UniProtKB/TrEMBL annotation:
Residues 35-157 form the NlpC/P60 domain. It holds the Pfam family NLPC_P60. The keyword Zinc-finger does not apply. It comes from Cohnella rhizosphaerae. GO terms for biological process: proteolysis. The keyword Protease applies. PANTHER family: MUREIN DD-ENDOPEPTIDASE MEPH-RELATED (PTHR47053). Belongs to the peptidase C40 family. Residues 1-22 form the signal peptide. Keywords: Hydrolase, Protease, Signal, Thiol protease. One of its GO terms (molecular function) is cysteine-type peptidase activity. InterPro entries: NLP_P60_dom, Papain-like_cys_pep_sf, Peptidase_C40. This is C40 family peptidase.
Length: 157
């Protein structure tokens, strides 16, 4: 075999190997598929779209929510007990990096400048189901505001 031909075979082989490795890398960084339980969490949460925000709202009411009373109520109605505040909710479950978010994961933000102060539920497709100053809403997590406030995520399902 001529050197130029050997070189071409080696380059093609290496390119194929690098491509396969890159493909494997891309596959392993994707989120887990939505489960029936996570779909039910989102379905039960979307029933409350538009319900007003009320700071410190009790967790046994449904006519107003703050962010953590909303997540606590929705998860409780789906058989998962969560602590009351966003700070304490951020300490349970399994830590998940942003690139591995899956439907039903809790996502946490620093909106006050003093650590974790907001929580929402990842709804898939770059959306978060949460109670904000505008009430319960589906919001994009890819806006410059939410991107700059992101802290961490936890999987509790």
């Amino acid at each position: 075999m001529q050197w130029s031909r050997i070189k071409a075979v080696v380059i093609i082989t290496l390119s194929a190997a690098i491509g396969a490795t890159a493909g494997l890398s891309a596959r392993t960084s994707t989120a887990a598929a939505a489960t029936p339980a996570s779909k039910e969490v989102i379905a039960s949460g979307t029933k409350y779209l538009g319900v007003p925000y009320r700071f410190g709202a009790p967790t046994n009411i449904t006519y107003a929510f703050d962010c953590s009373s909303f997540t606590q109520y929705i998860f409780k109605s789906n058989g998962v007990k969560l602590p009351r505040t966003s700070i304490t909710q951020a300490k349970i479950g399994k830590k998940v990096t942003k690139g591995y978010l899956s439907t039903g994961d809790l996502i946490f933000y620093n909106t006050s400048g003093k650590g974790i102060s907001h929580v929402g539920i990842y709804a898939g497709n770059g959306k978060m189901l949460h109670s904000s100053s505008k009430g319960v809403a589906l919001s994009s997590i890819n806006t410059s505001y939410w991107k700059s406030k992101y802290v961490t995520a936890r999987r509790v399902l």
